[in-house]
Amino acid sequence: MERLEVLKTYKIYIGGQFPRTESGRFYPLKNKKGDVIANICLSSRKDFRNAVVAARGAFGGWNSRAAFNRSQILYRIAEMLEGRKDQFIAELVTQGLNTKAAQEEVSLSVDRLVYYAGWCDKYQAILSSVNPVASSHFNFSVPEPTGVVAIIAPEESSLLGLVTAIAPVIAGGNTCIVLASESKPLCAVTFAEVLNTSDLPGGVVNILTGNSAELHSHFSSHMDVNALIYYRNNKAEIKTIKENASLNVKRIFVYDQLALASDKAQSPYMIYDLQEIKTTWHPIENIGSAKAGY
Amino acid sequence: MSTRIILPDFRNTPVVDQVGIEERVARFTTRSIKKASKMQGLKLTLSMIDLTTLEGKDTEGKVKQMCYKAAHLHDVIPGIPSVAAVCVYPTMVKTAKDALKGTSIKVASVSTAFPSGQSTREIKINDTKFAVENGADEIDMVISRGEFLKGNYNYVFDEIAEIKEACGPARLKVIFETGELSTLDNVRRASEIAMYAGADFIKTSTGKISPAATMPVTLVMLEAIRDYYYKTGRMVGMKPAGGISTAKAALHYLVMVKETLGGAWLSNEWFRFGASSLANDVLMQIAKETHGVYQSSDYFSKD
């Protein structure tokens, strides 16, 4: 007797859990031949709201972790991804890539995670400074994470786009809600499984699948989201996002021309985007003069 | 002449069907309350809150600040009611009373060696009198759970009756600390003892013990209130306290009250929420309904 294949239910990822969308809606994902591969959750604004609550809840803990520990966890994500390479390659092929391109995309994704794992405890040294000031103060500036970041991930890339979007955000101590590619969502859901087995606390990364046209205005109008990164090039959506953000002073970053596979798509400046520089004036005795203070 | 109420034998209070209670409770959470009715429910919730600070680190300053918040929940949006009362320790009653002068907000005070209730009768009565003399409109007492669990129901009954006497005109809320009573049967029994002893309100918890207020426990108490009302014709209020921190949960409780006791109990004279963080979540929901966008706690005062 022929065995029935057990198919995976592709669900969203909120607060370390894999719920279905609260709306109960879904859209069929088809391959090149037009066969339905899977039913994908069509997330609603309430899923987004729940994800923001989870991300806000996780922010304090993630932000206060030692930078070195965040680095370890990012490296762990890379390890887990490497171990499940074949599954990702198969999914990328299902979504239309040839095998060679799929292999390259997965390898690049792993490398990108390792790249940002390395930066976790180093960007602070690059971005912070001790400032010469005229008064007797020890004056220094340090980067602090912005908070909860909403991301609308690239549409054309299933895995690499997602990793490129998430890694710098969490490396910098932020938490995020990501809207995955609508036409290529399979890897996003599987990547959530990777995150869930990598000691990443629940809520640090939340992944939704669905439609940007429906969700982008909610992503940009939510008062409890501190920044939004937009990786697509729909001019109308960019305009709405900027307008909405002006009402709640969200920081907006648009990367509509990013060549994902190139080295230009990874940089400590992408961590810097989501850092706020805090300056401290610490009063001291006048130690600037030639005399020894002791 | 008042009607004589014949005291039941508290050893024979009705037993509670736990599975039935849980199934009933699950149904309350499925009602769909949207738009205008949601807004009405949210405002009703706000007007029912006993804004509470019961910490060892409480100071006059903190109490004053909370009293200000009680009267001015979120002035940005017009038409928001104030809370029903503030709930403080007896030593803070005077401060709260002064701070709330000119408002209709009541001052509730915990007493009787809150939260453990482990003290002598004399101290408990003095504690209560002190609060009332300082101007408390409502007294939240705790029962002696140790005596209750020993089966010493008369002791518990007498204590409540004596505290009620000490309260004078102040309304008495009786806290069971249901988290320590362990069974729903005990909750039902404690409810009956308290109501027959003269409680104006029965209240689930101190907020210091987990689990605090849960829907099943509240439903058992509401049903006890209903049965008592049918027997004696006297209305008794209900106050779930502790653990209710979201607007959604508060609406579920309102549904439960309405469907168990009826609309007569849907006012802050007969139903209260003991909570400190609930108010902000309700305000955020009201702001969301008003402005149309999801809100951030960054824009609402921390208590």
Which descriptors apply to this entry?
heterodimer; A: 294 residues; alpha/beta; Aldehyde Dehydrogenase, Chain A, domain 1; 3-stranded antiparallel sheet; 10 strands; 18% strand; B: 303 residues; TIM Barrel; 8-stranded parallel sheet
Quick structural gist:
The complex is a heterodimer of chains A (294) and B (303). Chain A has 294 residues and is α/β, with parallel strands linked by helices.
If you had to describe this structure to a student in words, what would you say it looks like?
The complex is a heterodimer of chains A (294) and B (303). Chain A has 294 residues and is α/β, with parallel strands linked by helices. In chain A, strand 3 and strand 4 form a beta hairpin. In chain A, the strands form 3 sheets. A 5-stranded parallel β-sheet of chain A has the order 7-6-5-8-9, with helices on both faces. In chain A, strands 3-4-10 form a 3-stranded antiparallel β-sheet. A two-stranded antiparallel sheet of chain A has the order 1-2. An 8-stranded parallel β-sheet of chain B has the order 7-6-5-4-3-2-1-8. In chain B, helix 2 runs antiparallel to helix 12 and helix 9 runs parallel beside helix 10. Chain B is built from 12 helices and 8 strands. Chain B has one domain: Aldolase class I (TIM Barrel), CATH 3.20.20.70. Chain B starts with 17 loop residues before the first helix and ends in a 12-residue tail after the last helix. Chain B is an alpha/beta fold and 303 residues long. Classes of the chains: A alpha/beta (294), B alpha/beta (303). At the A-B interface, loops of A face loops of B.
Distance between the termini of chain A: 89 Å
Mean pLDDT of chain A: 94
- Would you report the number of β strands of chain B? 8
User: What spatial form of chain B do the alpha-carbon principal axes imply?
Assistant: globular
Biggest sheet record of chain B: 8 strands, parallel
- The ordered string of helix (H) and strand (E) elements of chain B is HHEHEHEHEHHEHHEHEHEH
Most extensive contact: A-B, 8 and 8 residues
Low-confidence stretches of chain B: none
Quickly give the structural class of chain B: alpha/beta
Largest sheet: number of strands, sense, barrel closure of chain A: 5 strands, parallel
Give the helices and strands of chain A as they follow along the chain. Answer: EEHHHHHEEEHEHEHEHEHE
Number of individual domains of chain B: 1
CATH superfamily of chain A: Aldehyde Dehydrogenase, Chain A, domain 1
* Spans of at least 5 consecutive residues with low confidence of chain A: none
Number of strand segments of chain A: 10
- Estimate what percentage of residues of chain B fall within beta strands: 5-15%
Predict the CATH topology of chain B. TIM Barrel
CATH class of chain A: Alpha Beta
* Count of helical regions of chain B: 12
Radius of gyration of chain A, Cα only, in angstroms?
21 Å
